[in-house]
Design goal:
The complex is a heterodimer of chains A (147) and B (76).
Chain A (H helix, E strand, L loop, with lengths): L16 E4 L1 E3 L2 E3 L1 E8 L2 E9 L6 E3 L1 H6 L8 E7 L2 E14 L2 E9 L8 E3 L8 E6 L4 E6 L5
Parallel strand pairs in A: 5-10, 6-9
Antiparallel strand pairs in A: 1-12, 2-3, 4-5, 4-8, 7-8, 8-9, 11-12
Chain B lengths: L2 H15 L6 E5 L3 E6 L2 H10 L7 E4 L3 H4 L9
Antiparallel strand pairs in B: 1-2, 1-3
Chain lengths: 147, 76
């Protein structure tokens, strides 16, 4: 796998993205850059790739920045170690580098996750994802590039 | 400008950003942190006044307390 970002003149070269883990308060996290877009509103932010989460949950302030209506989302009950919380799930256009697709993103007014979380549903199926803990790097291969 | 450059910038500056734990920061790789504060709306407003040379990223800097326990998995 190449060491830098994936753009080769070789047409058979498989383009992937790689992001180094970011270290906060002594621990490393697989954080990736992501752009969320809803109509004319868009936000570029950072999110944690979390294979243990079934759905994606972003901080409530991001919903506000995207001007998401409070009642325009699908209600879902979410289980967290501190109890169940209700979130609203909306379909949002997301982009990771050159890969853009629609994904289900949950927002909650009561539950502010420490990081924006990208969970498996509707996000992970778009990529082949490799967490290299030794290199502290995450590799993401957009699956459309394999077709 | 690729998003990866912003992650690399975040990695290189994470230690410095820890002093802003609990706050929102708006940054780009050319100018660094251009705005920060506890309210994302205020941070974005301040940013609009500042003509930026590059589209900024917003990031909520986690506090040490928030990261002291495992990240809760979100299960339906």
């Amino acid at each position: 796998m190449p060491t830098s970002q994936h753009y080769s003149s070789d047409p058979h070269h498989i383009r992937h993205y790689e992001f180094p883990y970011a270290r906060f308060h002594g621990k490393s996290y697989p954080l990736i850059p992501i752009k969320l877009k809803r109509g004319r509103y868009s936000v570029k932010t950072i999110a944690l790739l979390d294979s243990g989460a079934s759905i994606s949950v972003f901080r409530p302030e991001i919903a506000k920045a995207l001007h998401l209506p409070h009642n325009g989302s699908q209600p879902v009950r979410l289980g967290t170690p501190s109890g169940a919380v209700d979130i609203g799930v909306s379909q949002i256009e997301v982009s990771v580098e050159n890969t853009t697709f629609k994904a289900q993103i949950g927002f909650s007014r009561e539950y502010a996750a420490r990081f924006n979380i990208l969970g498996r549903e509707s996000f992970f199926p778009r990529f082949s994802i490799c967490f290299n803990e030794m290199m502290r790097t995450v590799y993401m291969l957009p699956l459309k590039n394999l077709r | 400008m690729k998003g990866r450059d912003n992650i690399v910038w975040l990695c290189e500056n994470a230690r410095r950003l820890e002093q802003f734990a609990g706050q929102w920061v708006m940054f780009n790789t050319r100018e660094g942190v251009v705005s920060r504060g506890e309210s994302l709306q205020a941070v974005m407003k301040a940013c609009r006044r500042h003509k930026m040379k590059q589209d900024p990223f917003i990031f909520h800097v986690p506090s040490k307390d928030e990261l002291s326990s495992p990240i809760p998995a979100c299960k339906k």
